[in-house]
Amino acid sequence: AATTPAETAGRVKDLPLEFVPGAQYKYSNTGYVLLGIAIEKASGESYAQFVQANILGPLGMKDTGVETGAAAVAGLAVGYTRERDEDPAILKPAPPIHMSVPFAAGAMYSTVGDLLKLDRAIASRALLKNESWERMLTPVQPQYAYGLIVRTGPDGRTSISHAGGINGFTSSFMRIVDDDIAIIALR
Length: 187
What we know:
The protein has 5 helices and 8 strands, in the order αααββββααββββ. The chain is about 30% helix and about 20% strand. With about 190 residues, it is α+β, with helices and mostly antiparallel strands. The protein has a 4-stranded antiparallel β-sheet, with helices on one face. The radius of gyration is 18 Å and the shape is globular. The model has no long low-confidence stretch (mean pLDDT about 95). α1 packs across α2.
């Protein structure tokens, strides 16, 4: 069922913190919903409008957007899943989810080609000031920066990555910085 970011925030607003902010890292979809709310308040635009005007449009990402549930988006893939105890070859359509629920935590759609444009923006440090890129890509917790996993392997090579999943879909993005290689998987 549809929900609003304010309703999501309301469900957690009275819960105690799990740890002092900045002391640990724990991924949280609700944290991204709160970030989306903050973007809307600071920009005076909807999250979808802000992302389109400040990221997708400037990078020419024409096959990427925020699904708001307001209108059907032509050409979207259908997600499939399999039951845990069934034959792994049997796939069923994934249960639907209204994209107002994940909001800024996963209501986006894209293509490998558009995500390569995002990779090129990261590689060339487009869109942001260099100081902002430095801050965004510097881990604040072991291996975790602002929204990205940043690791240096035993060979000294640095990678930037993040993965995600939502009903019927998984995705993975990795940039091997030292070799200027992007690995993008959408399933």
